[in-house]
Design goal:
single chain, Rossmann fold, 5 strands, 44% helix
Length: 163
């Protein structure tokens, strides 16, 4: 199991609670076991990412902080290419599609539009965790090419094909 930090940056506690619940509902040991940390401001998030650059940052984006989030994302790519960012969209967006497009262009790797639908975020985290593990040299000479390639696929919990 590969653990890494998830840093949730939000004003309320709704997203962090939803992430905790989604992680707890994962069957068996997960590839994306997480230590969850909560911060309230983007500058706090920046400090945490400087200390743990391989973290997964989840940022609540509302209509009032969209500009700040876009600026932070654009600057964050220059600060740390290792950290991955997920944007957590508030329900109050009139045009969530436009906001999501702008956030992806600024550097968000994934977008969540509801605390009740975090499966794609967990799938992204599994892939990120797997790629980090491969990048950290844990694949090594003791792993076959087939095992290495299989570890990079997003559906790891499925059984391997015969043959």
């Amino acid at each position: 199991m590969n653990t890494f930090d998830w840093i949730v940056c939000e004003r309320s506690n709704g997203w962090a609670a939803a992430v905790r619940t989604a992680l707890a509902r994962q069957p068996g040991p997960t590839e994306c076991a997480a230590t969850l940390c909560e911060v309230r401001r983007l500058d706090e998030l920046t400090v945490h990412l400087q200390q743990r650059p391989n973290s997964l940052a989840l940022i609540e984006v509302t209509p009032t902080n969209l500009d700040a989030a876009l600026t932070w994302l654009a600057d964050g790519i220059r600060r740390s290419r290792q950290a991955k960012v997920v944007a957590l969209l508030d329900r109050s967006f009139v045009s969530a599609l436009e906001a999501a497009s702008a956030l992806r262009e600024a550097g968000a790797m994934e977008i969540a539009q509801s605390p009740r639908q975090l499966q794609h975020v967990l799938q992204f985290a599994r892939c990120y965790s797997s790629k980090r593990r491969m990048g950290l040299g844990q694949s090594g000479a003791d792993q076959s090419i087939e095992e290495w390639a299989w570890a990079l696929l997003p559906w790891q919990e499925a059984e391997r094909p015969l043959g």
